[in-house]
Each structure stands twice: as C-alpha cells, then as structure tokens.
Design brief:
Strand order of the largest sheet: 4-5-11-7-6
Largest sheet: 5 strands, mixed, barrel
Strand content: 5-15%
Number of strands: 11
Distance between the termini: 44 Å
Helix content: 55-70%
Shape: globular
Order of helices and strands: HHHEEHHHHEEEEEEEEEHHHHHHHHHHH
Structural class: alpha+beta
Radius of gyration: 24 Å
C-alpha cells in the first residue's frame, strides 16, 4: 500500500529562505499569518491529510461513486466523514473571507495546503478545490444578494460548488454551447440543457451543490459573445438560509473513467432549473474565467501532488528492493543482490522526478505568493506586475506541471518494474489519476496556445519582458558569487534559448499563424524549463547562505546535488525545444488530411 508524507519542511524552507517571507510580515493580507502560524497550519494540515485523507485514496479508487435510480450519488466509504472533518476543521475556508465564515488567512497558504491534499488523495481533494473556485467567481461577479445567500455556506464548505461548461457536442469551443436561459418574471432564469464531465457534479458530502452554469439567453448573439453565467443550486435555499425544494437539475449518469474514481464526474440535466445571472448578460466568460484560472492553477498543483507521492513511494521501493549487481561490481557482496539504487538508470528516473518536484514546489510558492500580491499589494504598479506574472505563468504551470506530473508518475511506476503494474502497490493508480490533469480545465495544447497567442503578446509583451528582466537582474546581482557561478551559467544559457524562441515567434507567427501553433507546446515547455531553472538557482543561493551561516543540514545540502543534476541532465532539453520551434509549421502541415 502506498504512503504519503507532506513535504512541510521543504515548503517552510522555500518560504523562509528562498522567498524571504519576513519581507511579507507587514504587507497587506499577511498580518494574520506570521511564519510560525504558517508552519503550524501546514503541519496540522499535513497531519490531517496523512491520517484522514490519504487512507481513503485506495478505497475511493476501488469503490468509486455510485449513482442510484433517483439520480443521487453516494461517494466511497469514509469520504462523507472525512469531508465533514475537513469542514469542521476550517480547512475549506482557510483563505476565505471572515465576513462569510472563512479563516481570513492569505491565499498562498490554502494553495500550499492543497498540494498536500492532492498528494494524499486527488479525487477527494477536488471537492473543496472546485468549491473555492466557485466562491472566487461569486465574490468578484455575484450580486450582493447572491453573495449574502450563498457565500456563507460555500466559504466554509457546508455547500459545495461546480463549474458547468462542457456539453456533448462541444468541449473547448464554448461558443457552440446550446444550454439556454429563459427570463422569468421574478428576475430568475429557467435553465435548460445538458452539461457533461462535471467534476463533483453530484454527491452526498454536502447538503447542497451550487452549479455555475454557462448558458445562452434567448436572442443572445452567436458565439462566445452571447454566453452568460448563471448560479443554479441543486436545492433552492429556504427562507432561513437552509435547504428548500429540489431544483430542476438532476444527475443523468456518472462517467466510467480511467482514474479519479472517488470523484463524481457527472452528466447533469437541467430541465427548466431556476438560476440567477452572475455578472452581466452576455459576459459570462469573463466571470467564469475567475474560476477557470483558479482551477487551472489548482490542476497544476494536482500534477505536482501526484508527482511527489509517486516519487516518495518509488524511492522507498528502490531503497528496499534488491535486484542485480552494480556495473562496477557488487556493492554488498554479502547480500544476494544490490539495491536498485546502484543502477544509474533507476537513479536517472528518480532524480528526474525529484528535481522537477523540488523546483516546481518553489515555482508554486512563488506564484502562490504572487496571487496575494495581486490582491493586496499597496500600489497599483505592484498589483499590476503581480497580475501580469500570474497571467503569464498560469498556462505554463498548468501545462508543464501536469505533463511532467503524468510522465513522472510513469517513471515512478517504472522503478517498481512489474510491481508497478500491479494494483496493490498503488503506482498504477497514480498514473491513471494523473492522466486527466493534462485534459481538463483546458487541454494542455490549449494552455500552450494561450501562452503563445494571448499571454506572450498581451500589453505589448509587458509580462514576458518583466520575467526576462527579473532573471537578468538575478544573474547580474549574483555574478560575483564564485560559489554560485557554476549554477548560474546553465541558467543563463537556457534563458538565452527562451529569448531566441520568443524572438522567432515575434518574427514568424504573424506571417503564418500555424508557426505559432506548431511552436506552442515546445515553447511552453521551454518556458517551464527556464522558470524551473531560475527556481533552482534561487534554491542554491539559499542553501549556500545556510552553509555559510552554519545552519544547513543534510536535506538542504542534497539540494546542491539535485541542482547540478537538473542543470546537467534536464536543462539541455532546451536546445531540442528551440530546434523544434525554429523548424516552423511546414513539416507539421505538409501531409494532406486525406493521408491521415
């Protein structure tokens, strides 16, 4: 059976040493979260997911969710009790507005806690994750009446939330949606249509489920410009704020799917269901994008969480399993075989996964802190810079973290050999669970196109220019540090490759848009490779500082070896990405459609 240990000490090191959390002590939004409180919250959160949530991971996979004839769904054994404990402990509303029952802690803390939840049990942790996204959308775009009626229950997790976009005939192309909304005399709308692939769309964890539904008001313009967003509850609220009569939305079926069996992926049928407009008419996508962008970052965290738990179990296996002998001769001649760790290729797989995990966690902490800066920075310029960074990095994190998370789960499975393919070891579940992260909340090819087509040129390339400027400033600031120099040279090289790729796109994408499409995935991964390289350089600087102060330890010293591995064995992939980008679209588009 697999196990999971939340990486609290690594998270705290990143906050304290790499990102100098002390600088945030007096910043708006951080006053309630000194570092000792942060560490205590993360430690207690780790204990909760390790003891309560993780043991249900295998249970959820085996039992799955069950739909009954009346359209209701029961979740796997133990889920309901665990969810109640999550709500009672205040974990769902960790960063929620105190006005609605939340804890009022910074958003970054909820993001970092979510890594532990997803590492322990992705299917279970999706229920509160989606709810928080719905809360964010309502907070920004909901009317005062809707916020007063729904946010107190949703912020605490007593009621859960979903996002309802996809329909049987359309996935990414939301301009094709057919769900319709008919105005009612009381100011509500009658919502009719079908939505599919709705995560947490029906369950028995909470008294009510609040669906945020994209639909088209009768007479609205065609395409995405005619889409509006509606709040449609499973049960209409009663006069006292509780649960009233059943609304016209039912679960028609639940999908039989590859992984995340413990989470209900529902087909929802809306039959004249009563709903209320969220935001402006025909402006549903901007409102929904508040939830979608948060969900994309949440899915990125899922990729990291699964990569971490897969690594932990593969490393434990490699430190215990004996197979073959070292190529240099027996390491332990008195044993029947050497440990798997003597084999270079086993080490390659483990180190690739771990080097990604620790660099990605640093990137996650940076972007999580950026979310709070975008909300609370004291001046417009700082908020704008944070928002620019957040917008630029969201598709990178979603695409790269989930592509790598799945690939890393496969590598970890490979370390176990035949046992990795057997259910009882748990590795094959990680592979199955990780696969969906590359698809939902915008397939990764869409993330790459978003990066190249929207985020890169936005505001004249302001966000990308700032990203390059930050790394250039870091390199210049530390150029005289002899101990750091060997780690900076590889970073400088991959930054140069990313700049070349960016320039190539600027020169070639407008003359042939297919060049942008052909380059997009490689560009996204080159961008991610560079961002992770920057994180590793910052980690190394922090470790060297701890060594100089005499406060380092074995775990921190190991990061220097990991950084060298990343620079020598993973950053060179940048050259391949650049070569493919510069090859353009010709070879991709040359084969006639009839020849496929």
């Amino acid at each position: 059976m697999p196990t999971y240990k939340a990486p609290v000490s690594d998270t705290v090191f990143l906050l304290n040493d790499v990102f100098n959390y002390a600088n945030y002590a007096n910043a708006p939004g951080f006053s309630e979260a000194p570092i000792d409180i942060v560490e205590a919250v993360l430690s207690e959160g780790a204990k909760f997911v390790e003891e309560v949530v993780q043991p249900l991971n295998r249970v959820g996979d085996i039992e799955g969710c069950k739909r009954h004839d009346d359209g209701s769904v029961t979740t796997p054994k133990g889920f309901k009790e665990a969810y109640k404990a999550l709500v009672d402990g205040g974990w769902v509303g960790l960063a929620g507005d105190p006005a609605y029952g939340g804890q009022g802690l910074p958003l970054f803390l909820a993001v970092l806690f979510s890594e532990y939840g997803y590492g322990a049990n992705i299917a279970f942790s999706m229920y509160p994750g989606l709810t928080n996204g719905a809360v964010a959308a309502l907070t920004v775009h909901g009317s005062d009446e809707l916020k007063a009626r729904y946010l107190p229950k949703m912020t605490t997790g007593e009621w859960t939330g979903t996002m309802c976009l996809t329909e049987p005939h359309c996935g990414t192309d939301l301009g094709l949606i057919k769900t319709r909304a008919v105005p009612e005399p009381d100011g509500s709308y009658a919502i009719t249509g079908q939505k599919i692939f709705i995560s947490a769309g029906e369950h028995d964890l909470a008294d009510n489920i609040v669906h945020l539904v994209l639909a088209r008001i009768e007479g609205a313009p065609a395409g995405v410009k005619g889409i509006s967003l509606f709040l449609v509850p499973k049960f209409l609220p009663s006069a006292d704020g509780g649960v009233g009569e059943r609304n016209g939305v039912m679960c028609g079926s639940i999908e039989h799917k590859m992984g995340i069996h413990g989470n209900t992926t529902a087909v929802l049928n809306f039959d004249g269901a009563k709903g209320w407009l969220v935001g402006e008419q025909h402006r549903g996508l901007p409102a929904m994008f508040v939830m979608m962008n948060g969900a994309r970052l949440g899915v990125a965290v899922q990729g990291l969480g699964i990569s971490e738990v897969a690594y932990q179990n593969a490393a434990a296996y490699a430190k215990d399993r004996r197979q073959g002998r070292s190529l240099k001769g027996p390491v332990e001649p008195d044993k029947p075989a050497d440990l798997l760790l003597v084999h270079p290729d086993v080490r390659r797989m483990l180190l690739e996964v771990r080097a990604f995990n620790e660099g990605a966690r640093a990137l996650l902490v940076w972007i999580a802190l950026t979310q709070d800066e975008a909300r609370h920075a004291p001046d417009d310029k700082a908020r704008q810079a944070a928002d620019d960074r957040l917008g630029l990095m969201t598709p990178v994190l979603k695409g790269v973290f989930t592509d790598c998370g799945f690939a890393n789960a496969v590598k970890a499975q490979q370390v176990l050999g035949g046992h990795g393919y057997i259910t009882e070891w748990g590795m094959e579940q990680f592979v199955r669970d990780a696969r969906i992260t590359m698809i939902y909340e915008g397939a990764n090819g869409i993330q790459a196109l978003d990066l190249v087509g929207r985020k890169l040129p936005k505001d004249g390339g302001r966000a990308a220019t700032a990203f390059f400027g930050e790394i250039s400033g870091f390199l210049a600031e530390n150029k005289e540090d002899a101990a750091l120099a060997p780690y900076l040279a590889p970073l400088k090289g991959v930054v140069g490759q990313l700049q070349q790729a960016t320039m190539w796109l600027m020169q070639n994408a407008t003359k042939n848009p297919d060049n942008a499409g052909a380059a997009s995935t490689d560009y996204m991964h080159l961008f991610g490779l560079t961002a992770l390289g920057y994180m590793w350089a910052r980690i190394v600087r922090a470790v060297l500082a701890r060594q100089a102060a005499g406060t380092s330890n074995e775990a921190l010293d190991a990061k220097l070896a990991l950084a060298k591995f990343y620079n020598a064995r993973m950053l060179p992939e940048g050259g391949a990405h650049l070569a493919r980008i510069a090859s353009g679209a010709e070879t991709l588009m040359a084969l006639p459609a009839a020849a496929f």
